Amino acid sequence: MKKIGIMGGTFDPVHNGHLYLAREALRQLSLDQVLWLTSGDPPHKGESVRSRVVRRNMTKLAIADLDGMEICDIEVRSEAEAYSCETLSALKAQHPDYELYFIMGEDSLRHFDSWYHPEIIAEKAKIVVAMRYESSDSQDEIEKRLTAIRELIEQRKRVFSTEFFLLQTKNIPVSSTALRQMIAKGESIRDYVPRAVEDYIKAHHLYEEEISYDKQIAAILPKLEKALKPSRFRHTLGVMETAASLAMRYSYPVSAARIAGLLHDCAKGNNDKELLALCKKYHLPVTEAEEASPHLLHAKVGAYLAKHTYKIKDEEICHAIAVHTTGEPGMGLLDQIIFVADYIEPNRNRAARLQEIREVAFFDLHLAVAMILKDTIQYLNKGNARIDAKTYDTYRSFTRTINPESASGYAHK
Ligand code: DGI
Ligand code: FE
Ligand code: FE
Q1: Which among 221, 297, 335, 391 counts the fewest CB atoms within 10 Å?
Q2: CA nearest 242: which of 324, 157, 316?
């Protein structure tokens, strides 16, 4: 038999308190493994929660480097409301050799009777109750609490025929609710979550205040239609909606991605001479490579116009526009979304590996960026065009690394 702990939760977001509890369970009960069971849409919570996909991805990132921790997707992959008794039954059916240890807090034990079929839970699993104490608590106080919980356990034992275990844990002063509030206020959460989780939350703009972009899109559309040739405007709309689709796939705010797609070529109405003149006027630096191929400047000038003419305050949108032609080593999620959407949007039809890159784009975005750069460099070499050092640098940076997110598995699964 394998001793398997079940750490269930909404994990919105997962934090160091959760990790500490799981580690203590693993250690104090000598478990072989702790399974992190992320909920689907939780039936008990009134307030809205982040999508099951991002909560699960954060959890997966949090445990990526920890021995004995695994993600469990049973509830995430179920559309029916998942109850613990059903999940435990399913786990037991799949793995008859698992001896399950269901980890819960003191509160949960108090309300255990009112859970959905607690007797089935007790039949399938042993119950682990985590008792939390403060470091400032005196030994006397801790003993009192322990006695109270032991009494509670004795009561439950009379009703439910399973083993109960008591876990003594220090209280880690952190909660998901507090973290959500901190992020909304712009405060750092570095001390409370693993670095990978912090990065994920930032990249995907989780828990930030919603900005209304939809009105902005309606205002930009007619201006842009006037500024661009009809075929370019059509391409722009294609990039906007493709960027939206990629944003859905990779958990980026959809409206922000649409605006970036909409405006990415907003400077394309200007010819080379005009682009150079605009750079001079706005004091934008022009590199040697851009001097030789001034069309490259439509990215840089486009970012400037987005900010000053179209009044876009979101720096990530402006940055994505600025790097959309050559790319940039280490580009962020939105940068990659726009870079790829520009290449694969439905009106495009000339690129050699278009169909393959379109499919890869929704499988592994990072890989799609690398493929596009490879083909672009090949295409430019054939035409003896001068290649910007940035294009090469980006190519190198994207072929030599794999996306940390896909490396941890979830981009593929
Ligand atoms: O503006 P779009 O046509 O929608 O697309 P884009 O902004 O990606 O520009 C694509 C063109 O830019 C395409 O012909 C390849 C070219 N390009 C990309 N990187 C470089 C480059 N041209 C030069 N000269 N040097 C580069 O590094
Ligand atoms: Fe462009
Ligand atoms: Fe474009």
Answers
A1: 221
A2: 324
